[in-house]
Amino acid sequence: MHIDRRAFFATLGTAAAVSAMPSETLADALEHHMMETLDDETAANELKVRRGAGTLFGGPAPNSTTSPELHKLEPMPEHPTLVDFFKYRFAPATHVLQSATDALKKGEKEELILACLLHDVVLNLIKVDHGWWGAQLLEPYVPEKVSWGIRYHQALRFFPDSAVGYEYPELYNRIFGKDYIPTPYIKRAYEYARNHKWYMEARMITVHDLYAFDPNMHVSLDPFIDIIGRHFKQPKEGLGYDNGPVAHMWRTLNFPDMPL
């Protein structure tokens, strides 16, 4: 370890005080200084991320307080499609696949199935306000009802609706605590959505959310390929290269290791 002599001696006081110190005291002081310096350097090199960071950027998994190990990402095709993102950036995407599978089995319309399939994929980019971020990421490529439902499912999660069998998830009690009260803007968003003509578009996403946390359920993207083809407007240039208002968001998912 490189030690800055001047910096070290500055921690001990005046030159006269240093010269009066026994060699044993100086040795102890040097060892202590080296330990502090090592701690500082180690802390500076640790990967630290906010809890709201997306999964691709080292953010914690939904039920974890620690960051997962970063894995090497496969390069994307030159003109990436939504299916490519599921394969190379969103995988294993178990939760959204289970959600969409539940909607498919229960005979929901294709647009709602697509909304269930896509409602949480933005968590790979960012977790904070994921309903709004997710809607923005997808708006240019999906029917308006789909992005609207994705935007407001975030707020509706915290408010039961017995008419459709949606109760407050026990999972949220574990994450947020039993006494958690949503912030005022979430309550306002809920009240707005509750009185909107498309309320059920968002509400049914939350309903199928409840049945999408089975660790033993095996799912696949295959049943949804045709639905994606019919309802997702894939740009011919590839997601991230169509010069649209959210292309940069898809490029960020494509290249999460770029430092600038």
Description of the molecule:
With 260 residues, this protein is mainly α. It folds into two domains: 5-45, no CATH class; 57-254, Hypothetical protein af1432 (Orthogonal Bundle), CATH 1.10.3210. Helix content is 50%, strand content 0%. It contains 13 helices and no strands. The two termini are 30 Å apart. The model is unreliable at 62-67 (pLDDT under 50).
CATH fold-level name of the largest domain: Hypothetical protein af1432
User: Stretches where pLDDT falls below 50 for ≥5 residues?
Assistant: 62-67
Instruction: State the major sheet.
Output: none
H/E element string? Answer: HHHHHHHHHHHHH
Residues in helix, %? 40-55%
The average pLDDT value, as a whole number, equals 87
How does the overall form come out from the CA principal axes?
Answer: elongated
The tally of domains stands at 2
CATH architecture of the largest domain: Orthogonal Bundle
- CA radius of gyration: 25 Å
- Which structural class should the secondary elements be placed in? mainly alpha
List the helices and strands and how they pair.
Blueprint: H1 5-10, H2 15-19, H3 23-45, H4 82-90, H5 94-105, H6 110-118, H7 130-138, H8 144-156, H9 170-176, H10 184-194, H11 199-209, H12 225-231, H13 247-254
Provide a short characterization of the protein structure:
Helix content is about 50%, strand content about 0%.
For this entry, give a set of tags.
about 260 residues, mainly alpha, Hypothetical protein af1432, 13 helices
